Amino acid sequence: MKSSEITLKCHKIIGGYGEGEALVSHEPICFYLTDPKTGVVRERSHELAGKNLASKVLVFPSGKASSVVQIDGLFKLASHNVAPKALIVKDVETVLVVSAFLVKVPLVDRLEKDPFEIIRTGDFVKVDAEKCRVTIARK
Amino acid sequence: MYLTKEEERILAGEFGEGTEKALELLVAIGDAYDAEKMIPISRAHAASSGQEGDLYFVELLANGGARCKVPTSTNPVYDIEYFDKLFDVPKDEGEVARRVMDAYKRVGAILSWSCVPYLAENIPLYGETVAFSESSATPYVNSVIGARTNREAAQSALAAGVIGKAPEYGLLIRENRKGTHLVKVEAILKDEFDYTLLGYYVGKRIGYGIPVLKGISRQPSTEEFINFCAMSNVSGAISMFYMPGFTVEASTVEEAFQGDVPKDKITVTDHELRQACDELQTTSGGIDFVMLGCPHYTLKQLGDVARLLNGKKIHDGVSFWVCTSATAKVLAERNGHVGVIEKAGGHVVVDTCIDEPCWIAYKDKVGITDSPKCAYYRRFKEAMVARLQDCVEAAIRGRWG
To answer: Is residue B304 domain-shared with residue B385, that is, in the same domain?
Structure first.
């Protein structure tokens, strides 16, 4: 099957470039509830339970949990080199901005189309926050 | 976002890397919320925590030469020298705490190490624009005092303290401060613990929003407000609330909603509070410790503990801890409260919080606290939640229930 590629405009919050396989979560994410050494989601009732965030482009609605645990959670993933490569969100809040800022992972929102309709887990996604552009390739 | 000439020069690094990074973070937050500009703030409270993410940012600023431009207080960490004598705190954890405290000092923060700085060390006034992180601090400052703050993270509050400005969005704008949920309080609120349960229940039911509480029949005390604020942010995310007649910004329910209709209405009776209390009872039997002061106990509460313990002896197998601020402890010593508590076998400890690695000795222990927030951190095997009087009685008997 031929691969298709589309490019969407987005809104930059934390700049930079990151690419990788997409991992889509319809539920909010708490980075503290992942294994800091591997990036595997440990929150038992979560739809991503057992899935690995490491080096993925993470598509999710929003963050959750207290600022201290959320920030520390992503920071620990990054210090073990298993943080996501980029973050695409729907509803951003202060704590998520701080978390992404500290680990220098690009964070974007407001894609010109609903990311949950366009992006599927396994797609190859390039997030160029500086150019406000997200490119999605499907095999 | 519109930036002034001076802000552009800060971002270009002309005032050092620390200041540059602080503003860079604030601009990113402003971009996220479509803030039009930065506005001056008069003070900040950074919810320092002694964890690695905290350490990274405060060292980035301190090593980059940043200094706080407005009074910026700090949250509890812990005094490693004090705890090293008592427990085997892991070396690497202790080192993080030491470096965090040193970096906040270098950045020129107020070394309050208190989670209730709005009572003594860093007090906003009505109408001030500030940047206060910490779960009880954000709603207390917005609602009880009537200053304006967003729900900040430790890092965004510190950055705002360094720049002396915050991006203008959210609760800094009047229209965003209107009530979202109407809470009819039919329960009879007798004491501080009832406000703990009320906060816990309201946070759980509403999740995220600005509740307007109707039916509060008497002036809540400072401690009752603190408990409501802290606990509603354990079970939910309540950055502001109204109790018309007792909080400052709206004198009526209608005014609190700014003419809008509530998104939802809930009713709280004695039954809901009892249920909330039952939900927090996980076990009963022998206890190893009692943990009080989450949030930090006030001078008044240290006096309450002293009265309850006066002439009594804490059970041999029970460690009894009260966390407070350095400021409150000085006065409690002068008033004789600390002496009474220590004579009974208890400890009054400053600068720390139960959510710190210094309490590692209780990891597999069972205890009791008057704070659902303290129980929530899961630093113990099990922590039951009860009224202060019951906690003290359990301390004396060595068991609960």
So the answer is: yes
Measure A2 CA to nearest chain B CA, in Å: 37
Residue A44: its pLDDT value, please?
A: 85
Single out the catalytic residue among A4, A66, A67, A79: A66
- Decide: residue B279, CB within 10 A, 0-12 exposed, 13-18 middle, 19+ buried: middle
- From chain A, the residues in CB contact with B24 under 8 A are 101
pLDDT digits (tens, 9 = 90+) for B165-204: 999 999 999 999 999 999 999 999 999 999 999 999 999 9
Query: Which residue would you say has higher pLDDT here, B375 or B162?
Result: B162
Q: What is the DSSP string of B24-92?
A: HHHHHHHHHTT---EEE-S-EEE---SSHHHHHHHHHHHHTT---SS-EEE--B--HHHHHTTS---HH
What is residue B336's predicted lDDT score, i.e. its pLDDT? 98
Total domain count, chain B: 3
Q: Do residues B214 and B335 share a domain? A: no
A25 counts as catalytic: no
So what's the pLDDT on residue B27?
Answer: 97
Alpha helix positions (H), B130-269: 137-139, 154-163, 192-206, 222-232, 253-256
Nearest CA in chain B to A72: B53
Query: Residue B153 is nearest to which of A12, A71, A109, comparing CB atoms?
Result: A71
For the stretch B328-385, pLDDT in tens is: 999 999 999 999 999 999 999 999 998 888 898 999 999 999 999 988 877 888 899 9
Output the six-digit token pair for B388: 């202060």
Which CATH number is correct for A4-138, 3.10.310.10, 1.20.120.1460, 3.50.30.10, 3.40.50.720? 3.50.30.10
Which positions in chain B touch A67 (Cβ < 8 Å)?
47, 133, 152-154
* Mean pLDDT over the full length of chain B: 96
- Substitution target in A11, A101, A130 with the highest count of B β-carbons within 10 Å is A101
Question: Are B134 and B188 within one domain?
Answer: no
The whole-number pLDDT of residue B51 equals 85
- Rounded to a whole number of angstroms, the distance from the CA of A94 to the nearest CA of chain B is 6
pLDDT tens for each residue of A52-68: 999 999 999 998 877 88
pLDDT (0 to 100) of residue A2: 58
Angstrom distance (rounded) from CA B69 to CA B265:
43
pLDDT band at B304 (very low <50, low <70, confident <90, very high): very high
Residues B126 and B267 in one domain: no
Alpha-carbon distance of B78 to B80, in angstroms, equals 6
Distance CA A107, CA B196 (A): 37
What residues of chain A lie within 8 A of the CB of B1, using their CB?
Answer: none
Q: How far apart are CA B363 and CA B90, in angstroms?
A: 13
Yes or no, beta carbons of B28 and A97 under 8 Å apart: yes
Q: What are the residue ranges spanned by the domains of chain A?
A: 4-138
Whether A71 sits inside 8 A of B150 (CB atoms) is: no
Query: Nearest CB to A98: which of B25, B52, B233?
Result: B25
ipTM: 0.91
Mean pLDDT of B301-317: 98
